[in-house]
Specification:
By secondary structure, the chain is mostly helical.
């Protein structure tokens, strides 16, 4: 895996690391052909629900949130976050 400081992105490196594959990886990185590494859920089959809300995942974030021509309000959800707040509320609500 590689990191491009100026672009602020991680890139998948070669599976087999030797001089030739590493040189090719560096060339791809400089030319913009290297594959960006992103932890993401799969893109849902139906991105927009019946209320008009769009589901955004890691691989669609730039296109939908940053690259569109509409203003966007983004609510970030993590499955474990709700449980955390329920625990905190139970502790402090005496």
């Amino acid at each position: 895996m590689g990191w491009h400081k100026e672009k602020g992105k991680k890139y998948e490196g070669p599976e087999k690391v030797d001089k030739k594959s590493f040189d090719n990886f560096l060339k791809d990185l400089e030319s913009g052909k290297a594959k960006v590494f992103l932890k993401s859920e799969p893109v849902p089959e139906k991105q927009e629900d019946e209320d008009g809300l769009t589901t955004v995942v890691g691989t669609t974030f730039e296109k939908i949130v940053l690259g569109g021509d509409k203003d966007v309000m983004l609510e970030v959800h993590a499955p474990w976050y709700v449980v955390f707040w329920v625990c905190v509320c139970d502790c402090f609500c005496v």
